Amino acid sequence: MDPVRNPFAPGAGQRPPELAGRDKEVAAFEVVLERVARGRPERSLVLTGLRGVGKTVLLGELRSMAIKRGWGAGKVEARPDADLRRPLSAALHRAVRDLAVRHRAPERVESVLSVLKAFALRAAPEGAKLRERWQPGIDVPAAQGRADSGDIEIDLVELFTDVAELAQDVGTGVALLIDEMQDLLPDDVSALCAACHELSQNQAPLVVVGAGLPHLPAVLSASKSYSERLFRYVHIDRLSAQDAHQAILAPITREDADITSDALAALFEASGGYPYFIQAYGKAAWDAAPSDPITDEDVAVAAPEAEAELAVGFFGSRYERATPAEREYLRGIAELTEGRDEGVSTADIAVSLGRKPSSLSPARDSLIKKGLVYSAERGRIAFTVPHFGRFLLGREE
């Protein structure tokens, strides 16, 4: 098969050639856009799921939908130990620019930009010299007395309110998309929840769409108890066999090629239905096939190549971030689960490693912070990366 025409595209956050199995989420967001535009109350949205299920891709799709509807839209990727103020300023600056082209009063836009600049400038640490201060690239004077108190919760409420009112002026809304939301600092999580709460009470046309690992709802709930009612939570999971077949077959058909039903079944079995793995195995199977159609024998030949690539780029890059003590903990999970994608008791890990539970807490907490494991319920732990246990058990130490 011609490798130039290979339709599959494994990549972090890269949109697949066929966005299969997400029709329900896309349709639900279409309703959100319409309701907010009509001034109807609507909750912000939080997408949760393991790595490789397509949360980032879905965020990109929702952002595109908002832009097509004339909304202002900005995207943030949260990072551990990094303050939200600076990236949030850049994202909202983008959203305001989207709205500015439709607004008939330049002075009104400039007024909001001045508040945004005041908010952004507070990202500089206290006592920072002028040359060390980050400049947000907003060509208006910073406002005074609005969104510049230094208290992120107060400032965020004021900023969101002003940006939402600007959108309301032109009869549209603003979508703020936050990826890796579980990595936000505690103060930023609290501020974001408070701002969303204020907006929902005032029915302001600004919606936050967050995406993160399965324990994100617990992170939000620990910050503000009302977050359970503040957001609409949507769990993003692996694709069903039918949707996975569509994700494989549709792009192949568009290239005037074909694949046998046995090969479709083999690709689903190898990938487990996880969208990222479907792209990886699909790409390898296309390249391995000597002729059309792709067969299950081609999938069998291609599987080791796909697994070798995943071992380096998807699994290995994460494993290398772990310390020796953390790797011991990861290995313990893998052995107890026998490589399956399921959780395990932290007490059982301690027993299997012959250690006291308290002595393993630093390794566990660090792995959670690094995004390699998560705790969806007290006393249990699981990998955030599908098939990670299988990778560890097959790895030669």
UniProtKB/TrEMBL annotation:
- On whether Coiled coil is a keyword of this UniProt record, the answer is no
Question: Per UniProt, what is one Pfam family of this protein?
Answer: AAA_16
Spell out the residue ranges making up region: Disordered: 1-21
Residues spanning the signal sequence? none
Q: Which InterPro entries match?
A: AAA_16, Cyt_c-like_dom, P-loop_NTPase, WH-like_DNA-bd_sf
Question: Residue limits of the Cytochrome c domain?
Answer: 168-319
User: Mind listing the UniProt keywords for this protein, alphabetically?
Assistant: Heme, Iron, Metal-binding
Would you say which domain of life the source belongs to?
Bacteria
Q: Which SUPFAM superfamilies match?
A: P-loop containing nucleoside triphosphate hydrolases (SSF52540)
Coiled coil regions, renumbered to chain = none
Its name, as the record gives it, is Cytochrome c domain-containing protein
Organism encoding this protein: Kibdelosporangium banguiense
